[in-house]
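Predict structure. Chain length: 411.
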Amino acid sequence: MALTLPSSGPYAPIGSKIRQGAQMAQKEMAANGVNMHLEIINTSAPDWLQKLKALPPSCTVVGGPLQAPNYAQARNAGVTAERALFTFLPSLEQGDEGTRAWRFFPSPQDQIDALIGFASDSLNIRSYGAFYPSDAYGARMTGLLEQSLYKRNMALQKASYNPADSTSWSTAVAPLINAKTPEGSSTPVPQTAFEALFLPDSWKNMEMLTTSLLYNGEDRLVLLGTTLWEQSLSGKTVTNAEKYTLAVFPAAWNQPQAPRTLQAPGTDFWNALGYDFVRFAVSMGLDSRLTTPQVTARAQRASKMIWGMAPISWDNAGVAHQKLFLFGVTANGMTPVDAEAFQQARARVLQQAALRMQGLPPVDATGAPITAPAAGAEATPAVQTGQPQPSTPIMSNTPRPSYKLSLPAAR
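Prediction complete.
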């Protein structure tokens, strides 16, 4: 088999990690009596296509390329008709996936599927909003979300903002929240008509975006992010992490669930990509370029393996679907989401929000009102003091769930 990876330029470090992961798999299989030849072709070299075409016909399965211009070169040179290309790209040219080549990489649609699957299937959410930057990425991701919701008979309320002018974001999001300020009060009460809000922007903008929501009185929404968050949160410290108790985002790498070979410190998604591809290619058992449906059928069978990254499957049209992991945000960065714990946290937030909007104090786990502590003292349930207590804001600035507000059950 062959890998087509850059050895120089800005993508060289990624290519190096994929190559290392592939060699880890090669070494592991050799120890188990499976010998295979791995040819690595440098796509940074001007003659890389000639070298790829010169490989023997039995070198049928090719991993990569990693960059879209290289794929276009291979396609135009007829390589896709000679070998089975499993590209490391989030998407292929229109109509190519499953016909000319295959994808061995998460797509934007995979991210959307993971988010909707969690919100609708685990949380029973049926109403969505999107607040997105008016750039190509924000518009594309929001469009995919809208199309996917439409297929489920769910609508999307959306608003965009100028990513270059953060001072305008509070005004831009206001129509989505539609807050009302009661007479005699200065606190806006949100009238949000959805429960989950899609934020397809980088993590560096989340502090200002959630502040813009809070300015309009909204801190109850489930926040849905994208894989853009992963790089900023992996192994990093997060300030004001309580603001993101109900924020989730997808990613293709979850090291604690990976095979032992990938447990070494410093191993990441790119190593897992190379590791998985080599084992997958061996499982396909190709020694010639079969017909496209036959290659897809082989891929479907090979996908039953134990994966290092999030597992990929192929439908009968040859389109890949990667079942991404979901992560939440903590003070220490990112952590896998536990659906049951998330549901409990969301219920607590909605309960406290319902109380707050009626001017009532927040309650503790037993349902007793929590008093505002004096300086240096711990919060005390009001029932212990015997004195009426003023209402206090809940859990600082926490972006969380929605308009379904319920009071605690009477005791």
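Summary: The CA atoms of residues 122 and 339 lie 7 Å apart.
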